[in-house]
Amino acid sequence: MVSTHPAEVRNSGSQYLSDSRSATASPNQELLPLTAKVNSSGCLEIGGCDVTSLVAQFGSPLYILDEETLRTACRQYRDSFKSYYAGESQVVYASKAWNCLAICAIVHSEGLAVEVVSGGELYTALQAGVAPEKLYFHGNNKSVQELQLAIESQCTIIVDNWLELETLAGLAKLPVPIMLRLTPGIECHTHEYIRTGHLDSKFGFDPHQIDRVFSFVSKNPNLKCIGLHAHIGSQIFELQPHHDLPGVMVEWLKKAADYALPVTHLNIGGGLGIRYTEADDPPSIAEWSKVVCEAVTAACQAQQVPLPKLMCEPGRSLIGSACVTAYTIGSRKEVPEIRTYISVDGGMSDNPRPITYQSVYRAVVANRMSAPLTETVTVAGKHCESGDVLIKDISLPTTQPGDILVVPSTGAYNYSMASNYNRVPRPAAVLVKDGEANVIIRRETYQDLIRCDRLPERLI
Ligand code: LLP
């Protein structure tokens, strides 16, 4: 764990590689992937690969995904649920954090199920070989086409609202497995854009309508309601909301029994936060899982309800810390007595989180990991937008154009929210393991950028 402020340490990169990193480290509490180390040339190495060599080979910006960190996070969730919960359990990867073929395949191979929120994510997960019975389809405004794809692929549909329920009742010719998403009315402290559990949320049925919803479902034999779902928000550090949630949800379970619904699954959502800076102090995956499992068990005992199959649905805490983004440093601008900007070859198109949520990141210089921190700079992106600043006022060693800046904790909601703003091609992603690097997403080309453009005859 990291407790020192960057300004207080002399050694620039190693500050994020504290001694307490061990096989039992919880990935979401680490800034750099679990395999990160400084090699004999003073360069950052991840998954046994020298980051500067990776950039030389694959170009930059480059997403570097450490397979071991991702698999460790999957196993910690899976094993914690197994040890803290007496009933059956299933961990589901919320693939909106980063949905691509390789990641779906890895989490599936670890026994996780996959949650998708669009026809595109569903298609990708199916192409990756995820079994339909391990696919859960979310969304507050699924199209008829998406619902049909979901029915055909035989995944479970998490129904969010009345229109969807009625549309599905019309479309389903055979029993379709569904779960119902309800808004639990539980507040948590996170950015307002990523809070979902409070009653004023666009997601899920209003729990005041629960009787009407259960009654409707009980009269439609083709809507096979196997479970209930709630998700309260994202990047949450407190344990209290997840301690309180099961009490509310188990009441719903009890009520479902009154309508003779075959409800056996309870999905308590995701939301566990990760460390982006040394100031972030999230609970570990094991601590969070323990709280959830014990709260569900206690609520079931108190309300005399049999233990459901317990599901959770993390995204960020599975993939976030497993990936870093490597950039090449370019121009420098010194505004006397105000600020020094160094610019990198990416920015808000590959990491829209600072401009969207004011998210704060750290960085290290991969080819100067042991150099002292000598200056405070602001890291700017290359986009034509003043707000395209990745990191304000960070202590770094003195850098030169061509140095490699690495921003940690960029696995969740970075590639998945990336854009082609300014027609900047999206970066490549490589998966690293035991000294080997495989491209899992190739870098976009200029041809890719005009792939969907059409030039009407009369304009030629
Ligand atoms: N389940 C549901 C229904 C969700 O809506 C989400 C996230 C998750 C699970 C996974 O939550 P996590 O474990 O990743 O916190 N783009 C924002 C985050 C949006 C989260 C959307 N829903 C960001 O970059 O912070």
UniProtKB/TrEMBL annotation:
InterPro entries: Ala_racemase/Decarboxylase_C (IPR009006), DAP_deCOOHase_LysA (IPR002986), De-COase2_CS (IPR022657), De-COase2_N (IPR022644), Orn/DAP/Arg_de-COase (IPR000183), PLP-binding_barrel (IPR029066). Signal peptide: none annotated. Residues 11-24 have a biased composition (Polar residues). Substrate binds at R316, R353, Y357, E385, Y413. Homodimer. Belongs to the Orn/Lys/Arg decarboxylase class-II family. LysA subfamily. This is Diaminopimelate decarboxylase. It comes from Floridaenema flaviceps BLCC-F50.
